[in-house]
Amino acid sequence: MEPLKLPNSLLKRMEFHSETCEIHGIQKMTYQGQAVCPRCEVEEDTKKLERDITEEYYIQEQKRQYNIFYKQSIVSDQSVLEADIHKLTAQDGEDRKNLNTAFEVLKAYKKGNVFNLVFQGVQGVGKSYTSYALLRELNESRKLSCLYISVDEMVRLIKDSFSNKESRYTEQYFVDLCSRVDFLTLDDLGAETGAMDSGKRASDFIHRVLYGITNARQNKSTITTTNLRSEDLYNMYDKKIISRLFRKPKFIIYKETKDKRINQMPF
Ligand SMILES: [Zn+2]
User: What domains can be seen in the chain, in order of their start residue?
Assistant: First the structure.
């Protein structure tokens, strides 16, 4: 083992001690009245530095993960940004039941259970709002990364990237981002085809993106909100995509709840 080189200024202030370090087999030194092994000291300092760096990395990583939700989510209806699960109130029987389910789901997700969640019902009953509130609460645990994506907006941005080469919002960008996070909400699935009642199939690139995302998320929880019936979704998309989103799902279905925004049934 090479002799440890200590600065002369330090050596001048230190004297050899009669004890030998059991680990390094070198003579200890007297420092501030104590017998210390210089090698042990250096090693301890290095370990401490490594611990500090690891801790700092962990803090930064946690911050980065926490910020994904606020910086990279794509929201079409800005009003959901205010959504807070603790401020949600239920109006009637079905609403109350759905809110209870949302809380059960939240508890299960926090425990680490992995399953999909599907919000189904007509427009304006609070599907987006509740799912955003749920994600926000999960994100506040600061242990799980969350992302909320309005499918409609995502599709618009990807379409734009076809002609705008400067855009970061490519197919690959969304596939990577949506695949990485612990929890993903795909909001308003089906609305992006712009032909809800005509039975029109989704475009090829939408298929590619959703296929990539659902393929990568097979062992993660994905939340989907939709105005469409399952049957319509199966007609609109590749069956594999929908079966993945609907695999082992918990459903929150609004059949009776009326549109909370315009206070009348849209159809
Ligand atoms: Zn030592």
Answer: 1-72 (no CATH), 73-254 (3.40.50.300)
Is 124 exposed, middle or buried (CB count within 10 Å of its CB: 0-12, 13-18, 19+)? buried
Which pLDDT tens digit goes with each residue over 191-229?
A: 887 654 445 667 888 999 999 999 999 999 999 999 998
Q: What is the 18 CA–ligand 1 centroid distance (Å)?
A: 14
Which residues make up the environment of ion ligand 1, defined by Cβ < 5 Å?
21, 23-24, 37, 39-40
Distance 44 CA to ligand 1 centre (A): 10
Cα distances from 239 to residues 25, 124, 245, 254, in angstroms, run: 69, 27, 10, 24
Q: Give the pLDDT of residue 111.
A: 94
Centre of ligand 1 to C-alpha 52, Å, is 22
